[in-house]
Design goal:
Structural class: alpha+beta
Number of domains: 2
Shape: globular
Largest sheet: 7 strands, antiparallel
Helix content: 25-40%
Number of helices: 4
Radius of gyration: 18 Å
Order of helices and strands: HHEEEEEEEEHEEHE
Length: 188
């Protein structure tokens, strides 16, 4: 069985990116915020993603983290995101407001994906779910006992990243992660 040199090269680049993100995430929160501005690096489904800005906090935002760089700017009707990863340039545009304005860039897949209006929270018992849901103003919460986690649906006004930050301030500090829209299932 032969190995694909292109796959090996991409694998090395991805490992380098993961190492850099690990080092960047190890910095203090203040240092990380000053570097990433409104771009945030989070983990979902075991992979690193870059959460792109979705708020009109500034007309022009930039990111510089090792092999990945990006910028976002607003026009009169949309927000444009440009991400450069290992020499390749990726572009996406979103509405200025609403759920569709929340997207992430997935370096391992080299694509943009929509951020779902819910978060995944790892829980061991149902008793904590009610207090956690109230703390972030959840619309609905579904507990999957055998799987050990809950999906919490958020109101339109709450960004998933903000909800996770609120959960980190709770005494229980439940482990939470963002959710990304996956590919559509093709039924036969």
């Amino acid at each position: 069985m032969r190995s694909n040199p292109l796959k090996i090269q991409r694998s090395r680049a991805f490992r380098l990116l993961c190492l850099y993100f690990t080092l960047a995430l190890g910095m203090s929160a203040e240092a990380q915020e000053s570097i990433t501005d409104e771009f945030r690096i989070m983990t979902t489904d075991g992979r690193e993603v870059v959460v792109l800005p979705s708020a009109a906090t500034s007309a022009h935002m930039q990111l510089e983290l090792g092999p990945i760089s990006g910028r976002s700017y607003e026009t009169t009707s949309q927000r444009v995101h440009i991400v450069s990863f290992n020499g390749e340039v990726f572009r996406a545009s979103t509405p200025l407001e609403g759920r569709s304005s929340r997207i992430v860039f997935i370096p391992s897949q080299r694509k943009f994906a929509q951020l779902l209006p819910s978060i995944r929270v790892e829980l061991e018992d149902y008793a904590k779910l009610d207090s956690i849901s109230k703390a972030i103003g959840a619309k609905k919460a579904t507990f999957f006992e055998k799987l050990g986690f809950s999906i919490i649906d958020l109101p339109d006004t709450v960004h998933p990243v903000e909800a996770i930050e609120q959960l980190e301030k709770l005494p229980e500090q439940p482990k939470a992660s963002i959710r990304v829209r996956g590919p559509r299932v093709k039924w036969r």
